[in-house]
Amino acid sequence: MTTSAAATSSQILHHTATFVSEALSQAEFRRRLFSVLRHKLPPSLDQTSLIRPLNLAAQTLENAISTTSSSVRLSSLRLVENLLHSHPENSVSSLLLSLSYGLWRRPISAALCLLDVFCFDPLSARCEMAPSLFEELFLIHLLPVLHEFNQRRSQILSNSPPNYDDDYPNYDSLAAIPSTKSLSKMSDEQASELKRLETEYEEVLDENCRVLAKYLKEVLENEDENRLTSPALTTMKYKEEAGEETFDEFDKIDEVRRMRTGELAGISLNGRYNPIWTEGDRSIELINNTSSSKSRSLPFYPQRVSSETFSDQISSWKLTTSPQTNSDSELESSLDDNPADSSSAESEAEIEERNRNMALFESRQSQIQKQEQPVSAKSSRSPDNVIGKLAPPKDFVCPITSNLLDDPVTLETGQTYERRAIQEWLDRGNSTCPITRQELQNTQLPKTNYVLKRLIGSWQEQNPGSVLVNQSENLCIEADPVVKSEMPSTSPNSVISQATIEGTVSELRHVISNLCTSEILKESETAVLRIERFWREASIEQDIQTMLSKPQVINGFVEILFNSVDPKILRATIFLLSEMGSRDKVVIQTLTQVDSDVECIATLLRNGLVESVVLIYLLRTSILNLRELDLVGSLLAVIKKKERDLFKMCVKPKTAAVILLEHIFQSCNESGVTSIVNSMISEKAIESVVDSLGAESSEERVASVRLLVKCMQEDGKCRNNIADKAELAPVLKSLMSTSDGERFEIVQFLSELVKLNRRTFNEQFLHIIKDEGPLSTMHTLLVYLQTALEDQCPTIAGLLLQLDLLTEPRKMSIYREEAIDTLIACLRNTVFPGAQVAAAETIMSLQGRFTTSGKSLTRAFLLKRAGLDKSYNNLVRRDQLSNFSAEAEETLEEEKAAENWERKMASVLVSHEFGLLFEALSEGLKSTDAEMYSACFVSATWLVDMLKVLPDTGVRGAARVCLLKRFASIFKSSRDTEDKALSLLALSSFIQEPEGLHELTSSLKDILKGLRELKKSTPLAFEMLKTFFEGQDSSADLWSHKQLVQVDCSENGEVLSVICFKDKIFSGHSDGTIKVWTGKGSILHLIQEIREHTKAVTCLAVLPEPESLYSGSLDRTSRVWSISDEAIHCIQVHEMKDQVHNLVVTNSVSCFIPHGSGVKVHSWNGVYKLLNPSKYVKCMALVQGKLYCGCNDNSIQEIDLATETLSTIQGGSRKLLGKASPVHALQIYGGHLYAAFSSLDGSAVKILSTSDYSMVGSLATTLEVRVMAISSELIYLGCKKGTVEIWSREKWNRIDTLQTGSNCRVLCMAVDGNEEVLLVGTSDGQIQAWGLS
């Protein structure tokens, strides 16, 4: 053959470009190509290092195909090329390079790489990847090989020498050679020769494909095609040695080639010869597919082969007594001739021919059934099987065993059976009568039918020579060697098996043949139902397994899954595949080798075929990513089904669903787990998973444990539901027998379960865990603790310690000692930071209070003790609303149980080894890990706080040595109020002893500063302040002040008003100026000076919401200023129609003292009212809608602004010849009214109760008080001669005196928000800032 007769470079480029363009346009086709070739990579290659770059290259290629950006496509293609060239070449990389070059528009490179695929893997390339390309470019060169094969095959079948001189047949119309007639007469030697011939044929085709691929590459690479010569093809060499034919060079058969091709007999034009026989089946024939598949690739799932393309497989069992045994040899299958270039509908002649062939096939199938049925009947029931003078009456013979009845029992249906036989029938799960198929109401066998037994005995006495012989003695069965070797020996007690084994195998083979060969779906479905019946009723399961596990049979079942829509058929098919898969791993490998098979089974499950879950469960280890199958919803539906509604299978569907769901959990990321948990909660499937805790399968129990742990960790609110339904005895049984990994899952589950928000419930569950195990749970945990991993030890130790505390703490307990020692060791083990954090969090959770979501309440509860109870109250309120409405008695009982548990737990922890735990917690407080530090801090605070209520056994000293300085350091340095409060709570425990107070002396000043900051937030800080200075007559050291700064504003006249707001200070001056100063850092640094009032600014007031400053002036206006970070801006001016001497404001009104009598109330909408018109008001204060007025006549009134009612707190008086004694200053604080009067009566400041106006105290100063400022601890009195006195608000004693100047009066004062800075404005224009030293 010359090159002119072969393909030219343009033809090669045309065909390869067609294939590449089709692949680039079909994403699913590309994915299947990649999957097929990847599975066929040689095992010698390093799979791990090879698959990763191939996957990356495939993904990058997909990106290049899908992108619309040319630059992105170009860079992606370059990356693909670099990736593939950097690793060894193989079939997958060649295919990817071909597609890449095709997208790059480099057709020659694409064609060369595509031909490389035929070099690396010719079998996959011609049969599965590109059969049409093989037919176009390769097949013409292989006609001699095909002809030679046909000649040799004919010689073997006819025992005549091959005729190599004949002309080649017309392969365009090549038809399969009918071989059924010869098939039945074939000897074992002929079958072996045909198999060896097929092996050699496959090897020769592979070698020639490689040679031709290299030749076609040379055609593309050589510019002068005429210089090329035809390739040297390999031919089939037939060897003979010593009269025996051998094929030594082809001993190895490709196992993968037989696994998934169905091993269907014949040769197709793609060069594939497919035998349907294996070691035990001798059916061989030749099949030729035409080129009708040129335009499309072969499908990637097993396809049903037409009955017209191969003959029916006959049984290899031979019944020597029956002349009908070889009747199948008469069957022939006619095959159509399909022209290679047929592209239109078939002619009428072809259709008639095909119908005749089909009719012949169906008629022969019915003949086979008719011929086989009498054999079965005779072997079991025929009187001809009886040897003797007289056959017994049929009523004396058991219909199951075909033997004379020995112990007859008559069922409710009226049928009589041998007791052993019918009992075995019932023991196998049947509940019907074998003959009538009626459902039995009672499966308990009745008493022996003695009447019939006596009749049989009487008949035997009359016919002593009559014996009923079992059919197995009549028939001599010759089985295949393989079947014989695999057939289990049947027990002599299995009477049903002894009676039916022979007929079953023969009939089953015929049914399997129908399943694999019939193109009529109904026939195949009927075959499935019959196979299912054989499987359920026969006792030769190993025999059936052997026949059904063949790949071509598995493919037949898969075809049913793809094509049938009958739920009964699909259920039976799934049942059979599951049963076989549970016994034979080869079935699993066969099913998972093609991705579409697995997807088909998953689709059936998603469509509601519940039984499919069992098959997916069996396939789970071979499925790369279960999550991608989108089965969560279907699995939850199976889990929720009642067991009685489910099909009985080798594995319970619910068991399979629970285990599969757990597998999906393990492969999900955090968001995926959250999504599945939400689905379980919304679908109300958690209760069904809880039921699996009591399952018979240990694997299901452990899987359900893992699922429930995930649920409680993701959404702890389901914990109560789980606790209500959980059956712990089976779980505790698994705890004793599972592996260490599974054992920890169970311990984690139990630990999560005792984090309920009710202490009494937790203790009930602890009792169940302790008492309901088959062995001692505590001993099991103790043994496990000694061998567990470091990260697991804290959880185990925590559970063990809780179980030990169920009884009153004893002096010694090995469980307690081991548990606490483990926790301390984990805290100190810096090599395992995870174990450190787990140990600290475990100790913190041992306090015993939890939210409904299982989060520890220890921190929130300690904050409540420290006086910051807002977070704790919010958590408790939320729990009560979401969980239950607790009665008062119930809440009291819970709190009592929680306190008792907390005391016991704290006692054993702090007492262990004289406070050794405090030392470990102190080391943990030095950790830089935030989780570790936080857990140790809360745990240490809790245990130190509990020392207040525990008897002192010497551990307080140990705690003080280890932790006091650490807590003092935290209190001084922390900026978080909660951390300060917690450390303060711990310090309050230490200062109850003189040693603790003494050790804090060096840090006293910093601690006092922190206490002053906290005294507004928590009463504990105030109590601590009192403790530090308990018994001292003077508190000057505590409240001593020093001048921070003084600014001179004399150029603006007197400082008439000063006020603080956040980090700013505002002052009003007599020339109408308002100044804005910094209030923190560099105090009294001028920010802004503004003068919009024309006369003196007499008063300032601030509204926090919105942040606004109000100024009152003698120019008869009031201005509203917006406060920003940089400056203030006037946003509104109110005409007050009178001078404003003092001003108080709310959101709706302002009240000011006019030049005349009374108090004017100005509504912001412009309405004025005059209140208390009979009095000349000197000062006033507004608190909660009530206006307090101090008047010139020494009287004090209270006015309710809402009702405008007036009450007199103190009546007026005139002294010293009618000269008035006014109330100079008025302040309201803490339910008391402080009023400054003249000092002539010896009590310049009176303290009155706002509730009943009674006098509760006074400040006996001799100075003339003009203004006052009050903080939570101190009272500041500004006097006429420039002096400021500081008095204790608690004890009403003078603490200190400040001198602001000698020739001035104190006109105004204010205290900043932190109560650390006092601001004083004087008549000589000075503003002073005094701070607590």
From TrEMBL:
A Pfam family annotated for this UniProt entry: ARM_LIN
Domain U-box positions: 391-466
Region (Disordered): 312-390
Substrates-to-products reaction catalysed: S-ubiquitinyl-[E2 ubiquitin-conjugating enzyme]-L-cysteine + [acceptor protein]-L-lysine = [E2 ubiquitin-conjugating enzyme]-L-cysteine + N(6)-ubiquitinyl-[acceptor protein]-L-lysine
Superkingdom per UniProt: Eukaryota
UniProt feature, compositional bias: Polar residues: 312-326, 363-383
Pathway per the UniProt entry: Protein modification; protein ubiquitination
Residue spans of the WD repeats: 1090-1124, 1299-1333
Enzyme class: transferase
Database matches in PANTHER family: RING-TYPE E3 UBIQUITIN TRANSFERASE
Protein name per Swiss-Prot or TrEMBL: RING-type E3 ubiquitin transferase
Organism: Parasponia andersonii
